[in-house]
Amino acid sequence: MPTDPAAALAQHVAATRFSDLPASTVDATRQDLHDTLGCALGGSGAPGIPELLKLYRSWRGAPEARLLLAGGGLPAPQAAFMHAAMAHALDYDDTYDAGGSIHPGASVLGAALATADLCGGVSGQELILAAALGLDVSCRIARAATVDRGWHRTSTIGVFGATAVAGKLLGLSAGQLHQAFGIALSAAAGSRQCILDGALTKRFQAGQGASAGLIAALLAADGFTGAIDVFGGRFGFYELYQPNGYDLAPLTEALGSRFMGEEVSFKPYPCGRPLHAGIDAALALHEALELGPDTPIAEVTLAGAPALIAGYSEGAPQKRRPTQIVEAQFAFPFLIATALLTGRVGIDEVARFDDPRILALSDRVAGIAAEGPVTVSVRLADGRSMSHSVRVARGAPANPLSPDQRAAKFHDCAAHAVRPLPAATEDAVLQVLARLETEPDARRILDLLA
Description:
Elements: H1 5-15, H2 23-42, H3 49-58, E1 65-66, E2 73-74, H4 76-89, H5 104-119, H6 124-144, H7 153-156, H8 158-170, H9 174-185, H10 193-196, H11 201-221, H12 237-241, H13 249-252, H14 276-288, E3 297-304, H15 306-312, H16 325-328, H17 332-342, H18 347-350, H19 356-362, E4 365-369, E5 374-380, E6 385-390, H20 403-415, H21 423-434, H22 444-449
Parallel strand pairs: 3-4
Antiparallel strand pairs: 1-2, 3-5, 5-6
């Protein structure tokens, strides 16, 4: 009987050392931690986060791990939950475009910060190594799921990345990590119905994945057991969650030499990743046509793949007139109108779903199903017209954000934190992240931000 791929993944996580990581992987992981931490700061006061924190604090658990910007501590799994939920709340966090747009960084950061604070003495190198392995595990599992079944991969698959992070920082053996992956299988969950319904459970699910991954690692460390045929078994992850829609090869392909965390995209806009190429195009037209909030626009068309147009433009009225932030994050016509009229799609702009000029234009964005690049076309009332097409959205490895753009994103997030972040503190955090592999204690991040 063939060995389940979970065994190879567990051995990979247990045996890999910091010196085994290519320099490009170290750099990519540092960037991911930088990006995801910024997103967590920006999401620290987002809708749903205060309610989650209130509930957890009411239980008065042991303060094992500190909380970003909230003061005090919680049991480590609950701290992991909160940090991952914060990181995912704005829909600004990283995506693995080749893996169904999973956001692997939220569960990785959540588990990493909580486990590092729980254990103490975790160096910056150890944090980077654990995060690189967690990202690799999540991206591999997501890539192997070849058909969209409606799972929220950020939680359903992210739980395994969180397990890898926590297990590595806890020093689990390969056998214990295999058991931890089996335990995580029992907690793998999350539906994208929350996106269609504009529900806050989308951020809840990201937290759930981080928390469950840490719990799985802690239980495995104490001898608790889980399924062994985690991914390839009769009732394993892929047969149960992805019937007739998976390929196990990516789980172990080039394992140890290709770290898939290098392949993630960093979002320039806080909204659904499949919408970014269209926003890129609309922003280019805003600049080229010198549009403003009062420019008379006669017609706007948005052409893209049939699934893109049907999923994000047609049907429910909230795609054009969102009534709250989760709806706005996935409302393609609204976001195109926002980009055309304001020239920016940042945290504040996505929240402008009460702007009558944007809503009026959003009503008139016509979707056209067409193969090829995403194309936005504009015809002005004075007769001028222009189209712009985008094949590779900004933020992808093939079209990366510049260092200045990444810094501006972090600053935008920090400016929207639940409590003001002094400039000196922001600068100190950025300096720690920039030289993280030289930090003797990764808890320095929480020292600055707790």
